[in-house]
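can u do me a favor
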């Protein structure tokens, strides 16, 4: 085998590896979450189905850098029918030896229906790590993306990835 053939084969092998590997951002944490207490829904009053909803939730890290962490957070969401805009949100990730504080800076949500009944909410957006300590201090100031998927009306999965 000559040198040119070997280089071509190596290049083709790397190309196949690159194509077969899906691009994925670095996962920071995957959480299983539950709403905490009741959420408040306040009609804004300017049109039907226009509400401000505030909600607290608690999550447990099941994968990623923050596996085993407890994340307590809250948000306020402006609902206009089945679609929503996240007005504010964020919380504290607690893990032995370190803390992270995240702030959501933009996001959207929508109700998920099955057989005409609401099964939960899916959302996505961006945030920032406002504070990190211990082994997570290097994440301070980093941008993150988040995605939620519903499990049922009071439970959901949340994933943070590096932006």
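np, heres the sequence
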């Amino acid at each position: 085998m000559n040198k040119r053939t070997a280089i071509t084969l190596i290049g083709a092998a790397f190309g196949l590896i690159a194509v077969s590997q899906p691009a994925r951002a670095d996962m920071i944490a995957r959480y299983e979450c539950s709403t905490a207490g009741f959420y408040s829904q306040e009609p804004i009053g300017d049109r039907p189905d226009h509400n401000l909803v505030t909600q607290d939730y608690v999550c447990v890290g099941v994968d990623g850098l923050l596996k085993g962490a407890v994340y307590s957070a809250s948000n306020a969401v402006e609902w206009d029918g089945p679609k929503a805009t996240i007005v504010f949100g964020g919380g504290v990730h607690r893990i032995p030896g370190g803390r992270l504080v995240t702030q959501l800076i933009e996001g959207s949500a929508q109700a998920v229906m099955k057989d005409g009944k609401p099964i939960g909410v899916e959302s996505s957006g961006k945030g920032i790590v406002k504070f990190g300590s211990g082994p997570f201090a290097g994440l301070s100031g980093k941008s993150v993306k988040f995605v939620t998927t519903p499990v049922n009306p009071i439970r959901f999965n949340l994933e943070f990835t590096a932006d």
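Residues 42 and 52 are 5 Å apart (CA to CA). hope that helps!!
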